[in-house]
Fold these 4 entries.
Entry 1:
Amino acid sequence: MTTQTLSEAKMTHHDLLKGQVAIVTGSGRGIGLAIARRLASAGAQAVITDITQEFADGGAKELTDKGMKAQGFICNVTDVQSIEKMAEDVMSKFGKIDILINNAGITRDTLIMRMKLEDWNAVIETNLTSVFKVTQSVVKNMSKANYGRIVNIASVIGMHGNFGQANYAASKAGVIALTKTIAKEYASKNITCNAIAPGFIDTAMTQKLKDDIKQKYMEFIPLKRFGQPEDVAEAAHYFCTGGSYVTGQVIVVDGGMFM
Ligand code: NAP
């Protein structure tokens, strides 16, 4: 390859998502922010959304400081009005929505015998019901445009279950089933919907776990390292830039922990 074609190839790589608008929920930090950064680095206009305007703006600033296109919008994924307002604001600002990454999520871990109904409900609402509600608010615009890429962040726990994570496991299993249903209902509109099931990723969510628990996980990870948010972002980038014949799938990003 000549130098010229190499630089051309590089340019194309940076432009793969040029002109596309990508909403990432819960992207003030962690995996969501890494996904927004990856999509913006490919030229997308990133819509950083989080519970408070301050968190959303913080994430957006990190990207704009690096010369990428990003703007923060407030969106609490457990609040229907907040979701609808965000979708309307994004449409009036940018005129379209090409990509939706349903990423926002929480844990409230404890064994079933101690789990309060409010812990169950909070996790199901934030991790599962939110995916239904945000998708519903956004997909109608994708349908009209006859194009869309939806990526839901599930978890290996949604495929295998885990001690102390009944609410989380059920929510993520629900996300996987919902992903396949969205894929079926919207395939005729040229909208793909896939899920990513991360294993142990080094973010605030896992940093709060005790050292002996982290050690236990490490024993089961053949690649012998915890995942980074960028590892998950790479998979999201694939679904948004390539994979036009791939829908209703779950890609596991876990260093080989489950195979
Ligand atoms: P994180 O660092 O805790 O980030 C979660 C993000 O979601 C935060 O920005 C948080 O906002 C936001 N959020 C929480 N509740 C929200 C709500 N009601 N409305 C809007 N945003 C909300 O965790 P993470 O590890 O990046 O997790 C991202 C996703 O990956 C989650 O769905 C998680 O279940 C999934 N996942 C993570 C791992 C892992 O090992 N880390 C593994 C498998 C799957 P605040 O900053 O305001 O709290």
Note: The radius of gyration is 18 Å.
Entry 2:
Amino acid sequence: MQHTLTILGATGSIGRSTLDVVRQHRDRFRVAAVVAGSNASALGKIARDMGAEFAALADGTKLADLRAELGGSGIACGAGESAVIEAAERDADIVVAAICGVAGLGPTHAALASGRRIALANKESLVCAGRAFMRDAAEIGAEILPLDSEHNALKQALAAGVIDDVLGMTVTASGGPFRTWTRERMAAATPADTAKHPTYSMGEKINVDSASLMNKGLELIEAHHLFGLRADQLDAVVHPQQIIHGLVHWRDGSVTAGLAHPDMCVPIADCLSGERRLDIAARRLDLAAIGSLTFEAPDEARFPCLRLARWALEEGGAMPTFLNGANEVAVAAFLAGRIGFLDIARVVEETCEAAASRSRPAPASVEEALSIDAESRRIAVSALPRTAAPALAGL
Ligand code: NAD
Ligand code: MG
């Protein structure tokens, strides 16, 4: 059976891996729409190659470029926020939600509200507005398939029992490129250092989040919403080989784990498959060749972002939304060379401390989440060093 697919964030790391899977099964997929931020040339090529019906760029100033790229192809296109929403709402069986950061909230929710099955990579949607997303998905009857490797492994492991028999879940972390670094060394880390991820090639924001272990913290919040577990039922363990991605602990002492080579095409193929699994060019797992799998407890003293995210999850309410907004400001400031790596946690902590006194409930809608996100960004910008603040005021 042929499935219709829309890809939000088609030019990014997850978008490209999704295209890789689709190219291996062209007969099974028809591409409805593709969306990207501002690269007209890259999006135009993807739309042509996939024979998409519609292509949309978030950057409203790039419409003429995109039209020129698509000239003569018959592919409709648009640019700006409304064009992105139009793409997200288009008829499709599956929408791969792989826009990076809070920018993914509106389009991902628009796809969900149209009843689409969502293959969710954009974890920030659940971190910022998880309660609203899960409630709306349940009301509409839209399915959210976890595409994040850990959550995809947990979803697959969960098939071994029923959720009421689950004691807890563990997500694994590679430990990132700074796993063995001292705080002193991290103080001088550059954006290029964060790009040296041990197992995955990813977008620049998630590279920084992986280096700070904020990514793992965001994933604990993501797991809380996806599987309905409490903070004390969720933990993370560092596992540098990244062969085990997630573990489900059952009440009888059994543990079911999800294993695979660290390759995002594997969870993507799971999300795109129907009743039968997709045959893709994935490496066969050879444990004898790997030799040993090692584990260590995450060091929250060296990686305070993980501690802050755990705290935000326990705190609940709007705290994860504040945490995420502050992190996006701090990561952008770090990538712009305006603050040091260790300042990321400081900016997030100061923002969360300021937010704690405001004691806000969890956002009940995407609009509320975006308004709290804007509030968080204002606090975070004021927590940046003075020299960094003016240029980042638009963040
Ligand atoms: P990326 O930066 O490589 O790609 C982001 C994509 O979003 C690009 O296509 C970009 O053009 C598009 N985009 C950016 N701003 C946009 C906007 N305002 N409107 C529309 N499109 C916009 O990021 P990535 O590494 O592919 O990650 C995407 C998401 O998937 C993130 O939420 C990340 O946490 C999650 N994720 C990534 C990985 C991975 O291995 N890369 C793994 C798990 C989860
Ligand atoms: Mg992950």
Note: The radius of gyration is 20 Å.
Entry 3:
Amino acid sequence: MSEVKTIDNLLEKMWADYIKLNPQAQVIVDLFKERGDEVVNDHIALRTFNHPSLGIDVVAKPFIESGYEEKGEYVFEEKKLYAKHFEHPKEDMPKIFISELKLEDFSQELRDKVDELVKQVDADTIKRFDFTSLGRPWALSSEEYEQLKKESDYAAWVAAIGYRPNHFTVFVNKLKSFEGLEELNSYLKDKGIKLNSSGGEIKGSKEVLLEQSSTLADSVEIKFSDKSMTIPSCYFEFAKRYEDGSGNLYQGFVAKSADKIFESTSKSQ
Ligand code: NI
């Protein structure tokens, strides 16, 4: 692809990169389209560390420059994460959800390792408009990956997979051929797709205005500095939104549900 200059180009590039790591997403989109459904992207999730050089606000920059605005913030106590979501004034643009690992809640060893990784990335790379589609910007050995994974699946995922979407999300309200998430989930399972069942297949409820389910992450072979290893990569998410008291479709996220959704990359299909 030629140089990425616009937000539409960036979103396309992120999708192209994402389906290489998570081919099941394209398979699912094609299945929905065959049923005559329109597939709309509800949100894209990105992951980072709260390191001063690479925190949420740094990762969000290209989106802010493209008209996105900060909307909600979330704390995930159990996973030791903080997150923000961003919306674009144009309604058909996906929301951008960015989480960061709270490094201060982890061992000195983990913090030093993350610092070492981040220091390998030059400032010009971080400033690139398409930074969130570049993947892993540092060298990492399989041993370092395993070491991080002992303390945090999330830290190991960011270290190995890097800056690219953790998941895209189908906006279920737009799928006319399914009654709801339950029917959608059974359909996917019939097609042999494994869902994340940690905390139940459907996270959230009508009461909290958001229901979500997700696939288990695809496995992908990642080249580490010493060898290649197959690890969980990205997953595909499905979100159904409900109207709030004033009749507006809820646009936020529910921290309690997402806590379990984060586990979609703890193991893979
Ligand atoms: Ni999500």
Note: The chain has one domain: 7-265.
Entry 4:
Amino acid sequence: MEKSALQIARAAYQPKLPKALLGSVVAKEGKPTQSVGNQDDIKKLFPNTYGMPVIEFESGEQKAVEPINVGVILSGGQAPGGHNVISGIFDGIKSLNPNSKLYGFILGPGGLVDHKYMELTSEIIDEYRNTGGFDIIGSGRTKLEEEWQFEKGIKILKELNIKALVIIGGDDSNTNACVLAEYYAAKQYGVQVIGCPKTIDGDLKNEQIETSFGFDTACKTYSELIGNIQRDCNSARKYWHFIKLMGRSASHIALECALQCQPNICLVSEEVEAKAMSLDDVVTYIAEAVALRAADGNNYGTVLIPEGLIEFIPAIKKLIAELNDVLATDEAKQVGRNKQLDYVRDHISEENLKVFNSLPTDVASQLALDRDPHGNVQVSLIETEKLLSHMVAVKLEKMKKAGKYDGKFAAQHHFFGYEGRCAAPSNYDADYCYSLGFNATRLIANGKTGYMSIIKNTTAPAAEWIAGGVPITMMMNMEKRNGKMKPVIRKALVELDGAPFKFFASKRENWARYTSYVYPGPIQYFGPTEVCDQSTITLQLEQAK
Ligand code: FBP
């Protein structure tokens, strides 16, 4: 593989590990745990993996370990640092016993079911250290939830003598990891399953998990681009830039980019829902800010829009919930794609039909037709940035006629998502991911299953990071998916009484009116620690509490 000068220098970077993982470790076990909700249901569904303690590793004497074969799966959307999780696992099992082997399943969970795999040797691993992307083995969104899939999986695991499987994924994938761990434990198949918290969306976090990997690099990449746009915007002074940012559900990415770049406007879906705002309320909010700046002679600005916004507008949320139920029936599944919109119109309530018919046709079809394998609306395909700017233009025309606005409005549109998911991991993500992978092997060596690898205290220098494991059942509750109640990891949305949102809320009026842009510039890998090794502002504010 041809490499750039930066890639060559970066390949030599040795990611940091928490002090506790540098030598042998012992597991310190806490008290039995409970799930975050629906304890009775979750306990019943996970009799073998429920209630296990949180684990923290301390330096100590590790017993001699036999060679161990481990399998690894990358699941779901790409996130910077995935290759470092894998290199951490590789180095971790080799340090336990040099004859251990690592197998990667190709293109996500489907690789386990279809028996598509490759052995990851040191030559292969060395090609991918500290690089972005998931291309070492590829990723996929196949949902692992059926017994026949688990049974097909165990066949290949036994054939390769794999004793433990590490699933690197977001909330849905780790939910499936837990279901698989429970199934293999119940059947006494002798295969452990460990999860690693991944997603640029930043919504897999809780008291035990500080952040999901990839969030740091993705936000820094988007912030560089937003900063560049703001500088262009402040130079030409003639456009309003509407920038949609990935994050299927939670607004963590948009909020973090706002904290880094200080745009004029940043919408936060969770606030829109809490204030029960309609689409028209959102449009009015933006239009009034545009008018205020125009009054000062500033016909330009930036608006950050979280990708999932549309789903959080209460009337649309209600509509989506009914659409999910209506589309989950066997009857609906038989309806041809070209008749599906009519079918939907005939089967939803009058109230929801009104909302449905008020939406532009492409948005309505997107809500009604396409779901990902986990039953989620594919919000990345909805052009909210164009929808909003169009509606703002119409609103401003009305305001002009009423003598409430006197300015020029020209819009540019952007969507940042895929640009950041495979960026070369920042030092934070490179270290965090390597530690997560290495730590997963210590959970395996200690016989754990149904755990997620965790690294805490990550705003401190890496030597002070805390390593351990959290039982996945502890993060679960019951939620409706595809029309049925299912055990799932609770998604972490932006908390409106949390420090990051409160800080943003205290500043946004000023940022809206006066040009206060910050231009963060590109991620730096080499140089002073205050430039290269800082975590996200979100995490810093959360940890400062
Ligand atoms: P994960 O939750 O699997 O990490 O993926 C998140 C995400 O990047 C969202 O931000 C986005 O909406 C979605 O994936 C896009 O999915 P796809 O890659 O299938 O287009």
Note: The two ends are 46 Å apart (CA to CA).
